[in-house]
Fold:
Amino acid sequence: MSSSTQHVDEVLPAPRLFVLGLQHVLVMYAGAIAVPLIIGRALKLAPEDVAFLISADLFVCGIASILQSLGATQWFGIKLPVMMGVTFAAVGPMVSMAIAHSGTDGARMIFGAIIGAGIITMLIAPFVSRMLRFFPPVVTGTIILVIGVSLMKIGIDWIFGLPVGPTAPKIVSPDQAAWLKAVTDAAGAGGSTVPAPPAGVALAPSLPNPAYAPLQNIVLSLVVLAIVIGVARFTKGFLSNIAVLIGIIAGGVIAAALGLMHFEKVASAAWLAPIRPFHFGMPIFDPVLIATMVLVMIVVMIESTGMFLALGEMTGKKVTQPMLSSGLRMDGLGTLLGGIFNTFPYTSFSQNVGLVGVTGIRSRFVCVAGGVILIVLGLIPKMGALVEALPTVVLGGAGIVMFGMVAATGIRILGAVDFKGNRNNLFIVAIALGFGMIPELAPSFNIWLPKVIAPLIGSGILLASVASVILNLVFNGATGKADDLRTAAMSAEA
Structure:
């Protein structure tokens, strides 16, 4: 057994395991809490339900990380230092599902799709490695770029306000609304000769909404962004790695001082509570939604493959075909557990893979310790309630960085692609990026298409994924290699 391999299986002293595990938790924390916040608010759930989603996410993050790093039989777990978290690749499709079906019924449909996708992912995991030739860096880089660009809209909406609802840029004039009500009431009076307004008539918003993009929110988000930049620029090592988290904490403190945070839900939340399966009721299984999530998971597994291969390179442990299948199968099991425990699809967190390279700490038991910490945090409802209490404007400043880093990762992967010697790669990126932007720039493009496929084509990420794979086959053929995927993953984490 080589020295590097010994590092992977080395059990460090408990105090050191705790500190190093906490470091991994802090590095991933901002990304881990972002997705339940996005989906919970897209579903228009009550604050306490959003807080529960956050707790459930941390809980399952911990379980999945332990199983992936420690291993569970020969079938599950890569047995490398991996921290598992909710994938941003699934956010776009889940937001589309949430918009179409809000509330607890929407949550049940999302969790049904996740459970179905998790089961299918476990079944197809051994075959995914055979698909690597369809996912060279020009494809994976494009997909990750589109994921980041698509998510950026969420960060921007967090800063300024949602384009619909109470924070829409314009509101209906109160005078016009009073006039329409008066006309409607007069038309309904007995013996009235006033013609009734046509059914469904509504006034167009015409007045600027003071709740949209107030100066205070813009300044606060810029302060959070400035703190993140400052920490990243003027600190090194661990502090630099948690720059986003420091920015969120500082923004929360400022928001509390300005009276923008309310702690009633935090005060009423319990100190300790179990994470109950099927919190929102039994899941609803929709075949189209399941198919959508399966396509997402295929992309996730390809990305995970690159991360596993890169980790093998960092730790000096050769990643064999059975190991790879076990790791990808764990992605499916984590996703299945996510659906059961009211959370979302899981994958290896790229920032934590990068942390392994930065710190040189290769012991997989460090990530096991991190998983234990996450489970404990998930069992403390006050933690979820505290995160939920953060104003979206605070998260918006950090979201610009978080989501922008996803896009930047895609750009870095594309940086290793040969565009000069193979101009066809330019066409692949350009056209796939265009397809990915369709739902973002023309959200009603599918108005005359069958409603049953709306969730499938309503995600720019899925459109870009399908387009990039097909275009690569047309221009380049099936040329992807495991070495290319490993190199791309390592370049993304450099």
